[in-house]
């Protein structure tokens, strides 16, 4: 059991909430998982069980450990039950008013020492804190999908978050072997999503212009900058390439890069046609039923193996 003991509440048992719950439970932290709907809670437990079974098949964990992990997760549809947690992380939909309303409701339930966190993908933490009576206990904790696999967590303070709160949250993540990074400033999209969206905006633009197929664009990224990025981030890589070389290329290239301030027409059309990606069977690619059922799990397993291997190399 980690030093920072005690129960943690996760609000919202969707894609992110269930991953965060699994992550903590695997680290022997007690979790209370709350959602408004019983069927979603049952579905979440089923998905966690299936994911753990896959980990057994791949030799990451033993079959006997599954029961212990599942015992660490309680589910509830009653928000009052989160009041004994030391940390409450919300992972409900990315709608400002919905999150603000839930956080205000939480303040009527929990005492002022309980830390509140949001897993928002990029809503400013100051904005989410606007209606709180105790913004000093509120912080952003942005996990990446799937939370039980991807090591990094961005931690973002609002202007009033106390240092004690950010220290406690950072310490906890380190203790459960996550790689937390504390941002110096609250900025929309934080670091990860700003960089991810800059890259996706360019990739969608290249597709829209017919420069290459989706598969070809992905192949270029995966097997060039993708391979390097596990070992060097974009800034370290520039040092290796030479800043003079980068400056020279930037001087002629930046003016040609995609810089639109609204989502691309191609993306808007796909969304309007319900081509939402794997969940509807079509996005930039076509996805058959077997892929819809299995591909995320297969990729998660490969990622876990890769992370394990990189950790070994960097020891
Ligand atoms: N999906 C991702 O890749 C990803 C990655 C990082 C962060 N996020 C962020 O995490 C949050 C959750 O995203 P998700 O993809 O898990 O969404 P999701 O739609 O899969 O899950 C949201 C869950 O919240 C529940 N919910 C809705 N309103 C609620 C309420 N008032 N009280 C309790 N539960 C409620 C829903 O029933 C649902 O189960 C969002 O802020 C999102 O931007 C998502």
Characteristics:
315 residues; eight-stranded mixed beta sheet; alpha/beta; 3 domains; Rossmann fold; binds nicotinamide-adenine-dinucleotide
Short description:
With 315 residues, the chain is of the alpha/beta class. The protein has helices at residues 15-26, 38-57, 63-71, 96-109, 125-129, 163-175, 192-208, 214-229, 234-241, 243-253, 265-272, 289-313, and strands at 8-11, 31-34, 73-76, 87-90, 115-118, 138-143, 152-157, 179-182. The protein contains twelve helices and eight strands.
What does this structure look like?
This protein has 315 residues and is of the alpha/beta class. Helix 1 (15-26) crosses helix 2 (38-57). The radius of gyration is 21 Å and the shape is globular. It is built from twelve helices and eight strands. Strand 6 and strand 7 (152-157) form a beta hairpin. It has an eight-stranded mixed beta sheet, sandwiched between helices. The chain has three domains: 8-182, NAD(P)-binding Rossmann-like Domain (Rossmann fold), CATH 3.40.50; 191-262, N-(1-d-carboxylethyl)-l-norvaline Dehydrogenase, domain 2, CATH 1.10.1040.10; 274-315. 50% of the residues lie in helices and 11% in strands. It binds nicotinamide-adenine-dinucleotide. Nicotinamide-adenine-dinucleotide binds next to helix 1 and helix 4.
